């Protein structure tokens, strides 16, 4: 048994030395997870039992090594969802919720969407968030990594969408039959030369294939935009995520393939994060 305040103080010092922002908060989050208590229950604790302390110390060592909190706990929140995460995928980020906000802006009628495709589905966060808003829709998620496709399928089951979704492993160049009312994608968009300089939580622990967008960061958009005219229904739209300063370039790539800009949407930090495109001539039936 050890006093909670002593454990948290020592942990915060270790996290601070490791260069982690807000070390006191991180220490409390780790202890809450290790002791299986929520914040209010944690406040009422004076001592930590041996089992929780051992679990905490293992988790603390991982966090001091800059492993992301979500990989330690195995969970992350996105939109209204509770998701399992793993090293097979990127951790869902709040910035990506801008894509769902943009989609709701251009498709306010919740009955107007019956089919959704998510390219590079990862945890399935974007697809499942869209299904949570469009109750009549069925979703298809594609990811190059089989482990990611399996993870997304588990998240669909976890959140009650298993009957309205399907996932498979394959490349964006794979033949996809049919057209979709909505195509979502958060593709790799970091320039190759910049990947190694990202914060350790990202550069060391998250999969490089989901980060590296090629020399200019735009390789994936060229592939996606080339495919979109054959993937969208007549009134369909694509909602793409991009990094800082990329939105004009992505819009220009879209124009090369007959796609016109419908909307730009900023994330909570004010960065243009989501671009909505549609076919200039309309898609299929």
Automatic annotation (TrEMBL):
Residues 102-197 form the Methyltransferase small domain. It is an enzyme of class 2 (transferase). The keyword Transmembrane does not apply. It comes from the Bacteria. Residues 7-74 form the Release factor glutamine methyltransferase N-terminal domain. S-adenosyl-L-methionine binds at residues 120-124, 143, 172, 186. The keyword Nuclease does not apply. This is Release factor glutamine methyltransferase.
């Amino acid at each position: 048994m050890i006093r909670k305040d002593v454990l948290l103080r020592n942990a915060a010092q270790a996290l601070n030395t490791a260069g982690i922002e807000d070390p006191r908060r991180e220490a409390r989050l780790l202890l809450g997870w290790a002791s299986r208590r929520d914040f209010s229950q944690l406040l009422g604790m004076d001592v930590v039992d041996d089992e929780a302390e051992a679990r905490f110390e293992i988790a603390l060592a991982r966090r001091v090594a800059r492993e992301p909190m979500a990989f330690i706990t195995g969970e992350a929140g996105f939109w209204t969802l509770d998701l399992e995460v793993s090293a097979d995928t990127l951790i869902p980020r709040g910035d990506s919720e801008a894509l769902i906000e943009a989609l709701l802006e251009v498709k306010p009628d919740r009955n107007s969407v019956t089919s959704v495709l998510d390219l590079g589905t990862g945890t399935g966060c974007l697809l499942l968030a869209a299904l949570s808003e469009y109750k009549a829709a069925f979703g298809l998620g594609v990811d190059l990594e089989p482990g990611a496709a399996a993870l997304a399928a588990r998240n669909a089951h976890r959140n009650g969408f298993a009957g309205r979704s399907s996932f498979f492993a394959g490349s964006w160049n794979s033949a996809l039959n049919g057209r979709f009312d909505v195509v979502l994608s958060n593709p790799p968009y970091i320039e190759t030369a910049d990947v190694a300089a990202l914060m350790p939580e990202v550069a060391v622990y998250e999969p490089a294939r989901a980060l590296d967008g090629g020399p200019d960061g735009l390789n994936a958009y060229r592939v996606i935009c080339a495919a979109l005219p054959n993937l969208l229904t007549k009134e369909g739209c694509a909602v793409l995520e991009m990094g800082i300063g990329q939105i004009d370039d992505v819009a220009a790539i879209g124009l090369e393939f007959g796609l016109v800009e419908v909307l730009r949407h900023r994330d909570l930090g004010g960065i243009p994060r989501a671009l909505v495109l549609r076919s200039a001539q309309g898609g299929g039936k």
